[in-house]
Sequence to fold (569 residues):
Amino acid sequence: MANIMIRRDDKGELSFYLPKRDLEDRIVSIEFDQADKWGGELKLNNGGAYYVEPLSAPPKLPISLRAKRLDGAE
Amino acid sequence: MAALTREETEALIAEVLEVYPDKAKKDRAKHLAVNDQSIEQSKKCITSNRKSLPGVMTVRGCAYAGSRGVVWGPIKDMIHISHGPVGCGQYSRAGRRNYYVGTTGVDTFAEMNFTSDFQEKDIVFGGDKKLSKLITEIERLFPLHKGVSVQSECPIGLIGDDIEAVSKKSAAEIGKTVVPVRCEGFRGVSQSLGHHIANDAIRDWVFDGKKEVRAFEATPYDVAIIGDYNIGGDAWSSRILLEEMGLRVIAQWSGDGTLAEMENTPKARLNLLHCYRSMNYISRHMEEKYGIPWMEYNFFGPTKIEESLRKIAAFFDESIQQKTEQVIEKYKAEYAAVVAKYKPRLQGKRVMLYIGGLRPRHVIGAYEDLGMEVVGTGYEFAHNDDYDRTIKEMGNATLLYDDVTGYEFEEFVKKVKPDLIGSGIKEKYIFQKMGIPFRQMHSWDYSGPYHGYDGFAIFARDMDMTLNNPCWNKMQAPWLKKAESSATEAVQAAA
Fold:
C-alpha cells in the first residue's frame, strides 16, 4: 500500500502521483467513474496499474488516497 | 561543424562507453540517450534519479545540500543551523548568490554559517544538549531572528539524535518556530531527496505547526513565487513583471523570502512555480489542502516569457489579461533591440548544457531567441518527468545525458565541439583550459539576473562577452605560433 495523489493536470486529464518514488503519470483508464462509485483499478500511461478502494462519490480533486500496486511498470 | 546525425550521436555514445568495464557500461548506457521527439515517455530512452556509479566522477550534491543550500538557506530571517561537523556548512556558506535585502547578522542571516561543530565527544555522548544550548544562545545573540531550522548532517542520523524532541522543547522555550529537518546527506541519490524532505518539513512544521493566525487582507490577485532562488536578483526581475500585470506577489520562496511570507502562502490564489524539481512537492500539498492551483512558468528569453505571462493571466479575469498584453507590448522594443544587437554575433553558435534540475530545459528558449542552438543537455538530479518535459524542447538527434560523469562530459565535448558550454564551477576550468568558452549556469558566473525581460538583456550580453572574447584566439603560446605567422608578418612588412 502506498500513498498516492490524484489531480487534474492542465489539460484536465487525471494525473497520478506517487510521492515516495516521485512517479508522475497520466491515468489512462479508471475502473469506476460514476456518480455513486469512483475508483477501482487505475491504469497508467507507463503500463503500471494501481487499485484504490472505490469511493461512494467522485471526490474533489486533488485527493490523497491509499493505493495497492497491481502491476508496477518499473 | 555540422550537426551530428542520429547514427553519429549513437556511435559517439557507444565510443565513450567503450572504456568502462562491462557492468559499468551497462549501467551508464541507460543514462545516455539520443533525443527523439516522437517518444512520449522519457523512460523509454533514458533512466534518471538512480544512484551514481561508485568510482566515477559525479557533480551531484547530497540531501543536506538540497535542504540547507537550496530550500531553507534562502529564507533570510531564519537561522539555519548546520547540525553536525563544521565543514558541511562552512564550505557551502554564501556560495549560492541568493540576493536579499536586510542587515546581515541583525535581522537577516542567509549568508552566515551557524553550526553545532560536532566533536568526537558529541558523537559518543550525543549532541542533543549541545543543540538545545545552541538555540538558547542564538536567541540571546540574535534576538531579531524569526525562527530556527535544524539541518542535520550525516552523523546525526547515524548516531540517532532526537532533533525533533529538542526542537519542540526549544520552540516552547524561545517562543519561535523551530524546524527539525532530517536531511542527512546519505539519504537519497542526490540533492533531489533533500528538496523533498525540506518541502515536507515546511508542510509539517511551518503550515501545520502554526500557532497564531496573522491578520492578512487577501485580494483576488495574490500570487506566490515559489522556487525562484533570486540568483543575482532573478526573483526581483520576475516580480516586477507580475506586479505590472496587476498581480500582488505575497511571497517569494525562497529567494529574498521570509518565514512570514511562507506562512501566508496558503492564502494565495495561484502558486507560480519556477523550479519545478525542488518545490513541486509543497505546491502539490497546497493544491490538495488549500485548493491553490499551481503552474510551472519559465522567464528565460522573450518567447518563453510571453508564453508564461499569457498562461499566468489565463488564471485571472480580463483586466489582468489586458494588462498582460500591455506589458508584453511595452517590453517589445526593449528586447527587440537586444535581439537585433546580439543575434548577428551569436547566430548559429552551438551550446552544450549540464545543469541541475530545471535550467537544462528552461534556458533553451533564451538561447534560441538569440539564434543559438542547444546540441546537448543533461541534468544532475532530474527525474523522469523532467526528461518528459525536455524531450519536446530539444531538437532531434541531440544528446541527452543524465548524471554525466566527468570523463563522459569531456569526451562528448571533444567530439561535438560546441561553441559554448554552460555548466557549473567544477566543470568550468577543465573546459576553459581546453579552449572552449564557458559560462557558469548555476551562479550566472557572478552576473545576473537572467530572468525576465531585464534579465534577458544581461543574458545576451554575457553570452556575447564570453563567446566573442578575443582571448579564445590566444590559446596558443606566441612562441609556438611564430613559424606559421612569420610568413604573413613578412608580407605585412613588405606592404
